[in-house]
Amino acid sequence: MKIIYSDKHVKHNPPFEIYDGVYEAYAEKPERIMSIFNFLKEKRAKDIYPPDNFPINHILDIHHKEYVSFLKNRSAKLSSKEILYPSYFIRDTYTPVTPKTYEAATSSVDVALTGAKYVLKGEGLVYSLCRPPGHHAENKTMGGYCYFNNAAIAANYLSKHGKVAILDIDFHHGNGTQQIFYDRNDVLYISIHADPKFKFPYSSGFEDEKGRGEGLGYNKNYPLPLGTTDEEYLEILKKTLKDIKDFSPKFLIVSAGFDTYEKDPIGGFKLTIPFYKVIGRQINSLELPTLVIQEGGYAVDALGEIAYSFLQGLSK
Ligand code: Q9C
Ligand code: ZN
Questions:
Q1: Closest Cα to atom 5, ligand 1: which residue?
Q2: Which residues does 309 contact at the CB level (< 8 Å), separation at least 6?
Q3: Span from the CA of 145 to the centroid of ligand 1 (angstroms)
Q4: From the CB of 173, is ligand 1 less than 6 Å away?
Q5: Is beta strand 219-224 parallel, antiparallel or unpaired with respect to 187-194?
């Protein structure tokens, strides 16, 4: 197993998000990944690797050219304390552009692509400690703390070598990943998440969104009620594993958000720390080369333990 990490994410550190007009502390903060990294450093220091720098074309394969230049140029144009809140290309008030956002977002993509590279080289399990997260980023919109869609960019890269299944277990629906692969049948997107009737991103993640054209049948959503417990979750997880088996992919990408944890400050499920090991073990039973991409998870003090529990289940 390998763990990919870069400290470039710390420079992206917006001071607040805006919720119903109220300024709140920014939940997607550097301490999240530091918590996981510090925990894993104790347990598995020798497995930690830095990312390579990948050329921009991997991002341009997924995101619109104008969108990428917007983020790059707006980041660069901001004075050191200046922050840009919603405008064109930005779908909500959770995803501000700061001077270092572009640099952190491209580094997060590098962390994902480096993981994908090791999987291609035959590594059975890689954990890419991406930050900022990616699954809410669509081809030309940032949203939900996400700028570039790390999992989609990695999936697209791997898809040149065989079919890819993406299992998204973040508490929120990955509207970005769904949108990016909605018309494709070589990448299966499956997501288990909170019912979007009640939780972000509100506008997608419903059961009847099944893909389009050639992609019809290659997008599957499992919205669950708030308060979902370990047992209830396990039942649905098993269904998604059957979907993945039926697809017989060559690679698996897990968009791993830990905001399903019972004490997550913005989630609403009731999953316990030991249960992440069960999730890991279930996924491991697929016996697929697996790339885990970090998405959300905001209970900073518990994230290290959760990630470690998950990895213990996943390890062969
Ligand atoms: N004040 C990810 O987990 N809504 N994004 C927060 C709380 C935004 C979550 C409202 C949720 C975005 C990657
Ligand atoms: Zn989330």
A1: 144
A2: 273, 274, 275, 276, 277, 280
A3: 7
A4: no
A5: parallel
With a 6 A CB cut-off, is 133 part of the ligand 1 pocket? Answer: yes
Q: Which of 189, 204, 298 is nearest to 247 (CA)?
A: 189
Q: What is the 3-state secondary structure (H, E, C) of 67-127?
A: HHHHHHHHHHHCCCCCCECCCCCECCCCCCECCCHHHHHHHHHHHHHHHHHHHHCCCCEEE
Bridge partner residues of 291 (DSSP): 126, 253
d(CA 307, CA 41): 12
Return the ligand 1 atom nearest residue 146 CA: 13
Amino acid identity, position 193: H
- pLDDT below 50 — which residues of the chain? none
Reduce the DSSP state of residue 300 to 3 states and report it.
helix
Does the active-site annotation cover 135?
no
Alpha helices in the chain (DSSP H): 30-44, 57-60, 65-77, 101-120, 150-159, 175-181, 230-247, 273-284, 300-314
pLDDT tens readout for residues 130-157: 999 999 999 999 999 999 999 999 999 9
What local confidence, expressed as pLDDT, does residue 86 receive?
80
Ligand 2: distance of its center to the CA of 267 in Å?
8
Neighbouring C-beta atoms of residue 238, cutoff 10 Å: 11
Q: Quote the tokens at residue 217.
A: 């049948």
Measure CA 142 to chain center: 13
Say if ligand 1 is within 6 A of residue 138 CB. no
DSSP state of 144: T
pLDDT of residue 179: 98
- Residue of 135, 136, 173, 193 marked active site: 136
Kindly give the number of the ligand 1 atom that is closest to the alpha carbon of 171: 3
The amino acid that residue 32 corresponds to is: R
pLDDT at position 116 is 98
For residue 269, which of 174, 197, 192, 178 has the smallest C-alpha distance? Answer: 192
